[in-house]
Amino acid sequence: MDSVLNPYYVDIVVFLVIYILLGLGLNLITGYAGQVSLGHAAFFGIGAYASAILSVKGGLDTWLSMILAVVITFVFSAILGLPSLRVREDFLAITTLGLGLIIQSFFKNSEITGGAYGIDSIPTPSLFGWKLDNSGYLLLVLVVMAVGIYALKKMTGSRIGRAWMVIREDETVAKAMGINTTYYKVLVFAIGGAYAGAAGALFAHKVSFIGADSFGFSVSATVLSMVVIGGLGSIRGTLFGVSLLYLLPEMFRLFKLDFIDMKYLDMYKMIIYGLLMVFVVRYRPKGIFGKTGAKLKSLQPHKAGTPKDGDSHA
């Protein structure tokens, strides 16, 4: 199959799927639970570095390293989610931005992460003696994405998901309904971070080298743009938003438009992202496929101070 599939196009799809995993995690935090995060790249980096360190410096099996990386990111994300208990909205965004910058600085200066030199020679996973590169790695990330989407659908459609959405609409109402907002806010950061950790582990073992610059604020801002444009609180919106913004620059490269100077592609990309953000926020505040609060009326109390049956102890 590797001889049939063009490695360049395979890599595009692989990195697209990795960004979709990042987007799903951030949409869970911001879209479903309403906790604005500008430091999602930190979770991405924790997953990547954890898997790289365990496999390269710890000598662990690649598969075990990737699984442990997700667990480690889950734990660290829960800890980093604690500031969300005291701050909201703009203050929460600034707090997560600060945490992201602190963690990136740690990656850049810590000995265990290789400092400014990063970590190289990260092994590619193998299955039954078959090295998963090109089409094999594509299959791996597609399976992980499918599992991630299925798990997200189950969570958001469950009691936990309903609790997150009530917190998003009105945290005071959520507390009045008996919802343990402290638990659910930390939980959503932990699970959303685990998605980013899985993306980070897959990224590290794909590129075989990682450095702190790969997990900066620009990554967080890009993923947030993808989620907002696609639609907050919508899996379909995440898939659309990530695919649109990730593939747009690749289309410029593919068609080699004469009026586009490839040297300035990153600048053009950010300009387009910004214009799309302004347009969507102005005309579609919830995003193209975003869900509105009208669908959440059934989650609110029938009368003031009276929780709806079945949700009083969420």
TrEMBL record:
Membrane topology note: Multi-pass membrane protein
Domain of life: Bacteria
PANTHER family the record matches: HIGH-AFFINITY BRANCHED-CHAIN AMINO ACID TRANSPORT PROTEIN BRAE, HIGH-AFFINITY BRANCHED-CHAIN AMINO ACID TRANSPORT SYSTEM PERMEASE
Regions that span the bilayer: 12-29, 36-56, 62-82, 91-107, 135-152, 183-203, 223-247, 267-283
Subcellular location: Cell membrane
Keywords, alphabetical: Cell membrane, Membrane, Transmembrane, Transmembrane helix
Name under which the protein is recorded: Branched-chain amino acid ABC transporter permease
Pfam families: BPD_transp_2
Highest classification ranks of the organism: Bacteria, Bacillati, Bacillota, Bacilli, Bacillales
This protein's record includes keyword Acetylation: no
Principal location listed in the UniProt entry: membrane
